[in-house]
Each structure stands twice: as C-alpha cells, then as structure tokens.
Write a sequence for this structure.
C-alpha cells in the first residue's frame, strides 16, 4: 500500500496532465467562438471579447491546475492530521501549513501588483492580464480554504503547543484576512469568466426547479389537487349506500 506522501506525489504528477487535457477539451470549442467574435462589426466584437482564444486556454489550464493542486493539498493536510501520533505532531502540521500559506499569499500579492503595473505600462495586453488574473483568483480561493482549514485544526489543539511553534489565533485570523483582501470584484469576475463552470447549454442548469412534484409533470405524478376524481365517476358499488351526493341518482 502506498503511504500518503507517495500517493500525493503520484497525484501531483498527474495534475498538469489533467489540467492540459481539460484545457484541450475547452480548446475544441474555442475556434468557433473566436471566429464568431471576429465576424460582424469587427472591432466592436473584438472589444467585447477581450481575451483571445489562446490566452483564454492558458487561463483555463492555469485555473484547473490551481484547483486540482488545492484539492490535493487539502487532502494531504487532512491525512497528516489523522495519522499524527500526538497533538504535538498535529501542531507541527498546522504550523507548517500556516507558514506555507503565508509565503504563498506574499507571492500572490507581489504577482498581482506586478501584473497591474505591467498592464498599465503596456508590457502585457488585457487578454494576458485576464488569463493570469484568472489563475490568481483560483489560487486565492485555494489559500482561503487552506487558511480556514488551518484555523479549524488549530481550534482543537492546546494554545501552548501552537504558541511554541509561533502560531496563534491572531496570526491565523490575519492570514485569513490577507487571503480575502487579495481578491476584488474585478478578480472575481475574471475568475468566473475564464475559469467558471460549463455553459448553460451543456447539461441541465444547476438550480433545477422542474421535477415530478412541482406540478409540471403528467397528471397523477405531481402534487395534484385533492379532488382529482369528479363526482359520479367512481365505479358502481365503491361507495356505501346513502353516501352519494344528492341529485346524482
């Protein structure tokens, strides 16, 4: 049986392959979208589609890679906590994750600021900016989830064990706030646009309001009115004598 570290390494090696595969699947539909965008009014259509097909593909691959890695990290941390032989080992795991999340938040802060300057100076176009910001949006979500996971794990451990490792409630709360402040309405919109779910036409909508019990199905399958059989339609002999409504005889 593989130990958790070996399993994690194996899964990490597949991360990029899976992300690229998903990206290529998206690419199949990209040329048609690109051609439609460039037809008609030309410049107006291009302005409405700020992210070129190749840049969009790069953003999709980056988002998928970040999401897959986030899932692996969450699982790895959970396994490490479960297999820890003592609370001291659990505190070690929390301390290491908090340090890792903090370093990654700092790196994202720097990268975000760098991209904003590069866009303003004309070193990159808006399409590349959006593609890279989409990946940053996915990484921000991952770091928020990891910092929340760290906070939950820390809440079950003795304060002194955490403080011996430089971790306290204030530090974790600060980490959560920094991860949240990294995002913005603009970044969130870019993330939804490039790394969002499948189009509406691919399968049923997420919020399904139709069903067998909402009155839209065939008669008898929904929650119909209580008096579904009109008076007098019952087979003869089903009702005891004297129970028929007046005037039915």
């Amino acid at each position: 049986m593989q130990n958790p570290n070996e399993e994690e390494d194996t899964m990490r090696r597949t991360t990029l392959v899976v992300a690229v595969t998903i990206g290529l699947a998206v690419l199949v539909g990209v040329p048609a979208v690109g051609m439609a965008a460039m037809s008609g009014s030309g410049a107006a259509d291009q302005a409405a589609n700020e992210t070129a097909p190749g840049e969009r593909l790069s953003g999709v691959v980056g988002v998928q890679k970040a999401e897959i890695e986030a899932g692996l990290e969450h699982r790895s941390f959970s396994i490490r906590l479960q297999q820890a032989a003592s609370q001291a080992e659990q505190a070690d795991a929390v301390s290491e994750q908090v340090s890792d999340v903090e370093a990654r938040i700092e790196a994202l802060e720097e990268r975000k600021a760098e991209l904003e300057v590069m866009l303003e100076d004309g070193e990159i176009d808006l399409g590349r900016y959006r593609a890279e910001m989409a990946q940053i949006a996915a990484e921000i979500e991952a770091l928020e989830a990891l910092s929340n996971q760290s906070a939950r794990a820390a809440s079950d451990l003795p304060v002194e064990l955490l403080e011996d490792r430089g971790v306290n409630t204030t530090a974790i709360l600060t980490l959560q706030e920094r991860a949240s402040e990294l995002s913005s309405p603009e970044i969130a919109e870019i993330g939804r646009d490039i790394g969002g779910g499948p189009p509406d036409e691919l399968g049923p909508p997420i919020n399904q309001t139709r069903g067998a019990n909402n009155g839209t199905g065939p008669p008898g399958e929904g929650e119909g009115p209580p008096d579904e059989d009109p008076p007098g339609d019952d087979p003869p002999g089903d009702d005891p004598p004297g129970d028929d409504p007046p005037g039915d005889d």
